[in-house]
Amino acid sequence: SLVTKINSTLVNTVPLWETQLAQAVTMQRSAEAAAAVRDANDLTNELLTKNAENLRQSNKMIRTEMERGVFDIEAVKKANADLIGTIQDSLQIADEGKARRAAAEDDLKKMEAELRETLAAAKARRDGLGDTASGAVPR
Asked: What is the pTM of this model?
């Protein structure tokens, strides 16, 4: 009876162990396959989000440059201010030159008058008229 019981145990238990072992191997392989699928899905999701981020950044950079235009308004403002400054400098220099010329003209008129008076005095002295002839010089 002990031999029968051992024999029965071997006949029934060994196939159950074999089945259980096959199931365990299958479950392990399925778990590994599921992990591989999960990792692949995670990688796919990561690639999708990275590609979307890269596309957004590239588009933003390109669009910003496209909308920038040929020149910046700040550059135009500076150039305009420099041109206005150039014109104002020219006008100021011209005004200063005009004032210097007017002052020089006044100085020349004074010097000419002094010269005329001196010449008239010299002529009067030569002619013996004295100081009375200094006012009679034609202009």
From this structure: 0.42
